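Shipment paperwork, digital attachment
Item: protein structure file
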Amino acid sequence: LLFPVSNLCGKCRPRDTDLLQPSLNFLYCSLHQTTPCSQQRAVAVLLSSVSLLELLQKVLECTWLWSPPSEPAYLSSEDALLCSGWLLIASLLLYQHRYNTEVHQTLSLDLTEVLNAVTFRKKKPILLLVSIMQFLRAVLRQNFSSSLLVIIGQNTAQGATQPQPSSLQDAALHPLAMRQVFSLVVSLQNLLVHKDLLLSQAVVACLETLVEYLYVKNQDIALHVASQPWHRFLLFTLLSGGQKSFLQPEVLRLMTLFLRYQSSNIISQKEISQIIQEAAEANLAELPEATSRALHLFLCQV
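Attachment content:
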């Protein structure tokens, strides 16, 4: 079925949402719900379809071309198609790297446009933001070096006008720039304040991957980003309101992140003691799975 469905997608236009939406979802599910042996063959089939990859290129570019709906929470058919496109590309990036599959057609994306889609998220539904962040995690994990993807649009002219220290930092983080890193971090923090479960999981995962990427590129920059004072304000914000417990998955994962990168100005011995005390008093068998996993990682990090 992968052959006819991928060929059918290649004959469509991005506006053919009624046909493309279930087709891309089928391809996505085929990649994720199969045995490893079949998964490798499925990746090879999809990456050999030049027309499918050309179609996906056009679909992704519609993210910053299509006008958003009047209601930001409303998932239109166009937005649903964009979600499917970003999730499928993120999966193809992951599995192409895992199996070192031959690539017959590369995709090119403007990194500035991708980051702006998250940073300036005007009227974008949550599911679309989550899908784009899945893509960002995939490219960050691969150090922007996938043979399937070509990153374009670095603003080298602006970098040349910056002071020398900034230029050195930008060179270390290439293709990202320091201003893009800080802009993305602030945007992720703002998204966390919404306290939406699906969004929170995606944001924290993206933040974790971003700091890991920075740490590989330049440890000083990674530690600088992880120790920014506004992270502590973010924790206070997340702990405000009805549920003050530290045993929230996104709070635990953030705490683990700050512990990992030794951000003692963000998380103190007092907070660590409070979390351990809450865990000791909780009925661990009744904790949600996401909370249990996050608590396990936190305690291992401690």
